[in-house]
Amino acid sequence: MAKALDLEEQEQLDQIKHFWKKYGNLISWVLIVVLGGYAAWNGYQYWQRDQAAKAAVLFDEVERSATAGDLARVQRSLADIQDKYAGTMFAHQASLVAAKFLSAQGQSVEAQAALKWVVGAAREPAYRDIARLRLSALLLDAGSLDGALAQLAQPMVPSLMGLASDLKGDILTAKDQKSEALSAYKKAWDELSEIPDYRRLVEAKLNALGVDPQATSPSGNAK
Fold it and tell me: Cα–Cα distance between 99 and 112 in angstroms, integer?
């Protein structure tokens, strides 16, 4: 009986050896790939957390410098965060903060550059579209009307569509294209139904152009 068991065990052992000889190399590589992928994923997660933490420090520096009115520190910190942590949301937020500060300091060209950087770098549509709106407004102020319109040519995220339509109306008004401006303002008035205060500003613009949106729009009474 013992010999029979020994023979059976030996046969199983031989089968295992045969199986491993045939598939062992493949199994080893599969394990290497799987474990390597797991290690890489953990490493990437750690790297992302590390990048975000370091970017957050620089974002705070940009924000504090802007609050203090320190132009040189804002410029230096902005350059650092854009260069080192371009893929983080902190870099995009810092660029928006810096652009607002730079514009207030009369540095319109630098402000536009910061916003263009966000448009090109941001993966989050909301950040990209906020930058496009602000860039369009700066270009309008600078008299670059076609450039301002170009920033609004692509669709915006839904929450910003009303603001984009209103700004488009301002640009078209500056271009003396009254009928196109009216269409843009009417569109803005409809899209801003959930923001009554801003909607009243658009209504005032329409009234100034001789149009009562409440009489012409099917969207209902103004709030």
Answer: 7
